Amino acid sequence: MEEQRAWWKECVVYQIYPRSFQDSNGDGIGDLNGIRSRLDYLKDLGIDVIWLSPVYQSPGDDNGYDISDYKAVMDVFGTMEDLDRLLAEIHEKGMKLVMDLVVNHTSDEHAWFVKSRRSPDNPYRDYYIWKAPVSGGPPNNWASRFRGPAWEYDEGTGMYYLHIYSRKQPDLNWENPRVRQEIYDMMAWWGDKGIDGFRMDVISMLSKDQRFPDGVLKDGNPYGDGLPYYANGPRIHEFLQEMNREVLSRFDWMSVGEGVGVGTREAVQYAGYESHELNMMFHFEHVELNPGPFGKWNDNPVCLRELKEVLNRWQTELEGKAWNSLFWENHDYPRAVSRFGNDSPVFWELSAKMLAVCLYMMKGTPYIYQGQELGMTNFQGRSIEDFQDIEIHNVYREMVGSGRISHEEMIRYINHMGRDNARTPMQWDDTAQAGFTEGTPWLGVNPNYTWLNAREQAGRGDSVLSFYKQLIKLRHTMDILVYGTYRLLPEESGSVYAYERTLGDERLTVLCNFTDQTQRCGLSCRALGTDNVLIGNYPDQSGTFRGDGPALHEEEDICLRPYEAIVLTQ
Ligand code: GLC
Ligand code: CA
């Protein structure tokens, strides 16, 4: 089926985590005016859309994902006027702005919750999920996703409220039509301001199974896994279709949902061309591969065969039915080059570029997380004081405090998987604090900023940054990259990812070596019918194909050097 054109299929999105992007007033926290001062950098990179992580009023228990007023800007980020100015300048420069929508929960300091907890019979009580104690304890065994129980006992009225995240993030009751209407009105208010869409936080979790059954105990967690009962719940599609009718369809927006617990079958429901819900979903199967006995807390290497299985399945199962989103990184995951590539000095740059080729030549809307375009890496914390994230602190307290694992082991896992890896300040240049702030940054700068920074890379044609610019340009100029169909090339390799894109009689072949050794592809130029390189990450790529590079003759297997990535065109 011919794919329908849409602007949100053709754009490249850049995610900004405002706390860590650019500070403008020396308080060590990134802010709106800081972002505004860097718009030329983003324009020059070539991106079309900025997705801004939350800048709303918030006590900051989960860095802004705990909102106390949806229509106000948090003072450390600036004012509503600063936001209006930012939006206007983004539009002047021909870019768009997508805001974060966090409506599974609010902060416990939101006026609705403050009223809700006052008494069992006030009009806001049913805005949240309150339950009477069962046998003197919580209504079920669900774990909070930030560790500990998901129910908090509230002395005032002697009842429990549900918080799937921190106890300062009570879950909204979407069963209540007044809650839904308030949210739609708020979204339209932002729409009237002129924003260009929403990224929707844990949107798959809005509808809870009203029986609230116990969850299974797993990963050594003393509390049960409620995910099967709160992800993709019974009324979720009804709610999102209503949201689409009431608000989304009124604006020329893009909408992307965070699909916790969403597989391909569900994604086709949320983002299907016929579903009238959202434009696309984020799934997490590729970034949550290889869990260990403590779930996400591990330092297991990722197996390419499994990674290919996941990405391939998403590409093929959504084909013609729903649109994909493509991401390696966001503010909740470690740096891709450290996890899927190789951040040693020899291979850092090559593998950062290879990962970009591998994912962004696929079908779907690319999302680039701040600093990824520089190949920013994980950092190595030593003590728990080196981290700020609530999730990291909670898991450390629980696991090390109870003696289940040692400090050293936990820090190793945190260094590998912790969210703060993505949240260290953006590395702009080699001056103090990487040019992020003139004060003391809220979270330490990665010490490699002295050589890994935007200014150095902007001045160098073969940098990771320059490579991202080329890839983005290709996405903008070649229809096949947006609309072409994807097909895995049938080689059974645990080291090479090979696939093709086709559109009409055009074809592109993408070959990526995920190892630090030279690898044969099992494909020859003769078989592929071309030796024409569109883009590659080795400087002498044409040599590879025309003589003096590692063996490559028409008939022979293409040999890919360590972390080599090439795209062949006809
Ligand atoms: C999403 C956000 C994450 C946040 C959580 C709770 O997963 O991406 O940062 O902690 O929701 O809002
Ligand atoms: Ca600031």
TrEMBL record:
Top-rank EC class of the record's enzyme: hydrolase
BP GO terms, sorted: oligosaccharide catabolic process
Membrane-crossing residue ranges in chain numbering: none
Domain Glycosyl hydrolase family 13 catalytic intervals: 15-423
Molecular function via GO: alpha-amylase activity; oligo-1,6-glucosidase activity
EC number: 3.2.1.10
Alphabetized Pfam families for the sequence: Alpha-amylase
Keywords: Glycosidase, Hydrolase
Domain of life: Bacteria
Protein name: Oligo-1,6-glucosidase
The organism of origin for this protein: Enterocloster bolteae
Higher taxonomy: Bacteria, Bacillati, Bacillota, Clostridia, Lachnospirales
